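User: I'm designing a mutation panel for lytic cellulose monooxygenase (C4-dehydrogenating) and want to avoid disrupting the core. Could you give me a predicted structure to guide residue selection? Please restate the sequence first so the numbering is unambiguous.

Assistant: Good idea. Sequence first, for numbering, then the predicted structure tokens:
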Amino acid sequence: VVPRNVTPKYEGTLSASTYPQYDLTSPNTRCGRGAMSTGNSSEIATVIAGSKVGFRIDFWYAGSLGGVMLHDGPLLAYLSRSPDQTPQGLMDYQAGGDWLKIHERGPDNHTRWFMPENWTQYNFTLPVTTPSGYYLLRPESIYPHSQFTTTQFYMNCAQI
């Protein structure tokens, strides 16, 4: 989702498996499982600092409930600036650089996480102070469990 319109599926996003990540040391936690191999097949979205942006939940598997977030927990958004500030440099970027958290949605109160019914999109504002350039924009959803090794991490990236 970019300013004022919903883009077609995968436009500007790196195609990744929707299965959760558990290993925070894996490169797959950068943009999702297998996403870094799809950079050249994804478009680069033009986004202006200060704009409202977001990510739409897509189908998980055949026969599932479809594009509805099924887990509660924190929602976060990060930016990582491509070291090579060219379109091809962004498409080749493996997301191994620094990440800056630009948005966070925590619990609604002391007893429950934010989780509206039939939630389908995660929207937020790109900071107005963001310098122009080529970035990966990553949304992240964390489904917490009492045992850390079973906490689920969901993420993807868009090239902007």
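For picking mutation sites, this is relevant: Residues 35-70+90-131 form one domain. The radius of gyration is 15 Å.
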